[in-house]
Amino acid sequence: MIGEPEAVGTETLGDGDRVVLTFPARGDLVVLARLVASAISARVGFDIEELEDLRLAVGELCLLALQGSDARHGDLQLEFTISGEALDISCTLGGAAPQSGSRDEDRNAADELSEQILYALVDEHGREQEDGSVRAWLRKRRKGPLA
After folding, report:
1. CATH code, domain carrying 98
2. Cβ atoms within 10 Å, residue 23
């Protein structure tokens, strides 16, 4: 019928669009980041395999940002930025103190595993620490233009 609003979920995201999600930095809430990553990936036009890769990669990205910190009082902020060639995702942990009593070798092993998983799933990724916050990021390209 003419004049009816579009059905929910049929719009796409395109070049220059940005979505930000902020939630308490708790491992059990990383599922929220994965759900949002799936929805955004679908709206951008990634196929089902790429969508699954991104869903898994975002979970690892969050865990990488959380590594070595006592995040009970911190927040994770995910930023999804769409360009004509890629989806860029950054995860910033703010307001968390370094974790006390954890062993560096345990953290390094967990970091290595997350890095290996990201290496297999995305085109580029990295991690930076500055002024008490941690930022992990990734880039996933798709063949052909996004949405």
Report:
1. 3.30.565.10
2. 15
The per-residue pLDDT for range 60-97, each reduced to its tens digit, is 999 888 886 665 678 999 999 999 889 999 999 987 66
Nearest to 139 by CA among 23, 53, 49, 29: 53
What are the distances in angstroms from CA 41 to CA 6, 61, 70? Answer: 20, 16, 30
- Owning domain of residue 119: 18-141
Tell me whether residue 102 is exposed, middle or buried, using C-beta atoms within 10 angstroms of its C-beta: 0 to 12, 13 to 18, 19 or more: middle
Which ranges of the chain does DSSP label H, i.e. alpha helix? 30-44, 48-66, 104-121
Provide long-range contacts, Cβ within 8 A and 24+ apart, for 113-116. 114/60, 114/61, 114/63, 114/64, 114/67, 115/64
147 lies in some domain: no
| Count of the separate structural domains present in the chain | 1
pLDDT tens per residue, range 3-51: 444 444 557 788 889 999 999 988 889 999 999 999 999 999 899 999 9
Give 1-30 as a DSSP string: -TTPPPPTT-----TT-EEEEEEE--GGGH
Residue 4 inside a domain? The answer is no
